[in-house]
Amino acid sequence: MHPLAKLDHRYVWHPFTQMRDWLKREPILIVEGKGALLWDAHGREYLDANSSIWTNLHGHNHPRINAAIRGQLSKIAHSSALGLANEPASLLAQKLIKAAPSALRKVFFSDNGSTAMEVALKLAYEFARRTGHSRRPKFLTLEGAYHGDTVGAVALGHIDLFHKAYSGLLFKTDKVMAPYCYRCPFNRARPERADARGYRKCNWECVGKVEQKLVARKKRGNPYAGFVFEPLMQGAAGMIPQPAGWLSRAAEIARAYGALLIADEVMTGFGRTGSAETRAPSLFACDYEGVQPDFMALAKGLTGGYLPMAATLTTQAVFDTFLGEYDEFKTFFHGHSFTGNQLGAAAALASLELLQSTASLRARGRLEQELRDELKTLWSCSNVGDIRQVGLIAGIELVRDWRTREPFELGERAGIRVCEAMARRGVLTRPIGNVLLLMPPYCTTPAQVRRMVGVLREAIQGTCAVQR
Ligand code: PMP
Question: What are 141's strand-pairing partners?
Answer without folding.
Answer: 175
